[in-house]
Hints:
The structure holds two protein chains of two kinds.
Chain A: E1 2-10, H1 15-25, E2 29-38, E3 41-49, H2 57-70, E4 73-79, H3 81-87
Antiparallel strand pairs in A: 1-3, 1-4, 2-3
Chain B: H1 4-16, E1 21-28, H2 38-52, H3 56-67, E2 71-78, H4 81-85, H5 94-107, E3 112-118, H6 125-140, E4 144-152, E5 156-158, H7 159-175, E6 187-191, E7 212-218, H8 221-229, H9 236-265, E8 269-273, E9 275-276, H10 286-292, H11 303-319, E10 330-331, H12 339-346, H13 352-358, E11 366-372, H14 377-394, E12 398-405, E13 413-415, E14 422-424, H15 434-438, E15 442-443
Parallel strand pairs in B: 1-2, 2-3, 3-4, 4-6, 7-8, 9-10, 11-12
Antiparallel strand pairs in B: 1-7, 4-5, 5-15, 6-12, 13-14
Helix pairs in contact in B: 2-5, 3-9, 5-6, 6-7, 7-14, 8-9, 8-10, 9-11
Amino acid sequence: MKAVVTVVGEDRVGIIAQVCTSLAKYNVNVLDISQTVMQGFFTMMMVVDVSAANVPVAQLAQELDEQGKQIGLSIRLQRRDIFDAMHKI
Amino acid sequence: MFNVKEILATQDMIDKRHLDIRTITMGISLLDCCHEDVNVCAQKIYDKITRRAEKLVKTGEDIEWEFGIPIVNKRISVTPIAIVGNTCNTDSYVPLAMALDKAAKECGVNFIGGFSALVQKGATKGDWILMDSIPEALAATERVCSSVNVGSTKAGINMDAVAKMGQIIKKTAELTADNDGLGCAKLVVFANAVEDNPFMAGAFHGVGEPECVLNVGVSGPGVVHHALQKVKGQPFDVVAETIKKTAFRITRMGQMVGVEASSRLGVPFGIVDLSLAPTPAVGDSVARILEEMGLEVTGTHGTTAALALLNDAVKKGGVMASNHVGGLSGAFIPVSEDEGMIAAALSGTLTLDKLEAMTCVCSVGLDMIAVPGDTSASTISAIIADEAAIGMVNTKTTAVRIIPAPGKKVGDMVEMGGLLGSAPVMPVHPESSADFIARGGRIPAPLQSLKN
C-alpha cells in the first residue's frame, strides 16, 4: 500500500534526515522524493510504501503528525488512493 | 510517479476550502425489534443499534487519518419508529426515542434519525402516536431527529397530517423554549421523502433498504466557490462545466471513502448523496456561490436561475463519479447553516417567498428558517402545504424545517449553536390560512401528463 508524505515547514538543517529516520523506525520504505524550498519554506513530498509498517496506517499518520508538531513541521501522511480518486478517471 | 500539483490541489481543497466528507451514515433496520411491551422493544432497539454501529465512529476516525480527509459527522438512521412501534401496546413512543438517544451516545454519533412516520396517504394508529410523541421526544432527547412524510407525487398530500404537524411544530418549540425552540431544528416535514438520505435531520432507513447499509454525504461549497472565482465573467456554459468538474472530484472522494468504510464495517455500500451542504463557517456557503455568478445578494432577481444551474451541474458532475447516487443530491439552502444566507436574510433581500421559489429548483426545501414565535399553527401548516405541493407537482423531494422561536420577533436572532448555526427571524404573512387548513382531507395526486 502506497502513501504520500507531505512535509512543510521553515527550512533548516536536517529535516529530511529527521523525517526519514522516523519513517525507518516504523519500517516504512521511501520510494520517491521531491523537494523544493519556496520563499524560505521547505516543501517535501515522498511516496512511501506502508505495506510493511509496524503500526496501523491511521496510527502512523497520527504519530507523524504529532512528531511534526514537536519539531515545528507539518508532516502529513495520506494514502495515495485519495489523489488517484480525485484526479484520475 | 506522482504529480505534485494534484497533491497540492487536493490538500488545498481540504485545508482552505472546507472540503470534507459531511457524513457517513449507517442505516439499520429495526423491523426485528417489534414487541408488544414498549420497554422490551426499546431494549431490543438499543441492543441492535449498539451492536451494529459499535465500530462506526472508530472506523470513520481511522479513515480520516489514513486519507487525511475530515469526516465531519458519523451518524445512524433507523427504520421509521412508527412502523416498529405499531406493535407496542402504548400511547407514547417517547421510551423508544430515549432508547435511540442512549444508543447514539453509546456509539458516539452526534445524531440518530428515524423517529419518523410515513403518512402521505393516511396514518395508522402508530403514526398518530408517533406524531403526538414528537414534542416530548425531541425535548427529552439530545441526538434524536424526527421526520414525517406528509405527501408524495403518487399519493397526493395528506392535509390532516399537514394540519397536525403545524401543531406539533408549535408544541415542540414551546417544550424547547429555553433553547429558542431548538427541538424544531431536529424535525423535518417532507413530501416525497427518500429512503436512503444520509443527511440529518431527515434521515431514516426505508423499508426497501437492506438490513444494514452505509450511505455517504459529501460536501464542498467552498471548493465550488473557489473554482468559480477563476472563471469570472465567462458565459454560463463555462460556469456549468466548472461546477461539473469540481463536483466530479468531490464525489469521487466520497465514493472512495464510502466503499472503504463499508468494506471495513462489513456492510453493503448504499449511495453517495451528491449534496453541497453548507456550514456557518466563512467560505463554506452555497449563497456565496450564487453571488459569485453575478448576483449582488442572494435572493435578488436571478437567484432561482443561478440555483437551478448549480443544482443541475452538481448532479451531472457527480453522477459519473459514483456507482450509486441517491439521497437528496443537490444544493442545500438552509438559512441558519449558511453564512451567506444569513447575511442575505439579514439584509432583507432573501425572503420566505423567494426561498420558496428557490426550493422549486434545488434539493429539499424551506430549511432551518426561524419565524416569529407567535406564528400560528395553521400558518405553519399552510407553509408546509405550499412546500409539499411544490414537491408533489415537480416529482421532487421537498421539506420544511421551520422554527417558530418562542418570544422572538422579526429581526431577532435565533442561536442554534454548532453546525446548526444561527438564523434571523423572518417575517411571515399575517393574513390567516386557518380556514384552509381546517378543511382537512387529502389533496389528490396530480396528473403526470398534459404538463404546462
